[in-house]
Design goal:
By secondary structure, this protein is of the alpha/beta class. The protein contains 17 helices and seven strands.
């Protein structure tokens, strides 16, 4: 292994930050900042999930945490595996560990004394301007810690007499092996699945997400993506695809995150649209309500309010009145939440906030406000699919 090795520990896929309630696409960080910086520094880049194919993930991981010339730990969203592996690295090696994090949210106290590189994440993307700034910065830091390693582990800083564990070169080589590029790594399969989704080849994407789910031991992110692609494939029929997607989501035990509630709600809502069975609409509203009640996330809130609005159209008597009032109260709460954040969010996020405000005001029959925010939404130059999404929701309140 003449080539220097940089081992990357981080979460992968979309993860919710417990402090800010933002959903962060960690794959975007790896793809646009970490991997380019590592390769530009002349190192071989290996992410923790890329060695699952070996069948000896634990042994390989610990060996790399000990052996790697540099370890980059992205602690964004406080992924428990990444935090634990950072602690192991700080125990095994006094130096050459780099900590990075997206710039919102708190920093854990125990590592607050370390130097941490912050980068700006838009949630589902990283801007090209941020990439141009961060890649050279991280590249130069990698080169620096290799050329001039200095103690950065809190353990060795505060207890300098600590003796570093030693593992023989022979044993390390036998555990790690050649670590050559593998076409079946989680990272490469994820890239293939996303490309298939971009091309609207949902049947192929579903197969890849299913394979990823098995590799990652049923990680809920891959289950969510598999279910999403299953119902979007509409194969061999919409109804069959939706019922299959529901079965896939049942693999997630004790769901407690908005992504799971969101996917479940979407499946139930589509089942209602396909069958007109009102029990599916009830289940959709219940799923969205759980996400809304837990985090007050305006996306799940809007979907919950939409479901309650639709229930008011198909029910009678007191249930009809209750659904209508609940929808109106939720729309007003969504408006209040968004108006407080308009000066804080990034361009892509503010586009959707304008869209949500417009449709929320429309649902409340406040037409002047609805027109105002629709205009602001369109001024953000949304893509055609984004306009279609907006128009589909708008149609609920204009029919």
């Amino acid at each position: 292994m003449e080539e220097k090795i940089c081992f990357v520990i981080m979460g992968f896929g979309n993860k919710k930050d417990p402090d800010t309630n933002r959903t962060i696409d960690l794959n975007a960080t790896y793809k646009k900042i970490i991997r380019p910086a590592v390769e530009a520094s002349g190192c071989k880049c290996i992410r923790a999930d890329e060695i699952k194919e070996s069948g000896v993930i634990d042994r390989s991981m610990y060996a790399l945490l000990y052996y790697a010339d540099v370890v980059i730990a992205d602690i964004s969203t406080y992924n428990p595996n990444a935090i634990y592996e950072l602690g192991v690295r700080h125990t095994l090696r006094p130096f050459s560990t780099i900590i990075i994090k997206e710039d919102e949210g708190k920093i854990p106290f125990d590592i607050g004394h370390n130097r941490i590189i912050n980068y700006k994440h838009l949630g589902n993307e990283i801007s090209e301007q941020e990439v141009k700034k961060c890649v050279p910065q991280l590249r130069d830091l990698i080169k620096g810690v290799i050329a001039d390693p200095r103690v950065d582990s809190p353990l060795y800083t505060y207890i300098p007499q600590t003796k570093q564990p030693t593992i023989s070169e022979e044993e390390i080589r036998s555990i790690i092996g050649e670590l050559k590029a593998n076409e079946e790594t989680i990272y490469s399969l994820t890239e293939k699945a996303m490309k298939a989704m971009d091309a609207k080849n949902f049947a192929e994407a579903e197969k890849l997400w299913e394979k990823l789910s098995k590799k990652a031991e049923n990680d809920k992110y891959y289950i969510q993506q598999q279910a999403l692609c299953r119902y979007k494939s509409e194969y061999p029929s919409k109804l069959r695809a939706l019922t299959d997607a529901l079965s896939i989501m049942e693999k997630i035990e004790n769901p407690s995150d908005t992504e799971t509630y969101g996917v479940m709600g979407a499946i139930y809502k589509c089942l209602w649209e396909e069958t007109k069975d009102n029990s599916y609409l009830d289940s959709a509203a219940e799923s969205y309500k759980k996400g809304w009640s837990q985090y007050k996330d305006y996306y799940t809130g809007e979907n919950y309010a939409n479901c309650m609005f639709m229930k008011s159209k198909v029910l009678e008597g007191e249930l009809k009145t209750h659904s209508k009032v609940e929808a109106e109260l939720t729309f007003q709460e969504i408006i209040n939440i968004i108006l407080k954040t308009l000066d804080e969010v990034e361009p892509e996020e503010i586009m959707w906030e304008y869209a949500t405000l417009s449709n929320s005001y429309l649902a409340l029959n406040r037409l002047e406000d609805a027109e105002k925010y629709e205009k602001l939404f369109r001024e953000q130059n949304p893509a055609l699919w984004q306009i279609d999404t907006f128009e589909k929701t708008k149609q609920l309140y204009t029919d």
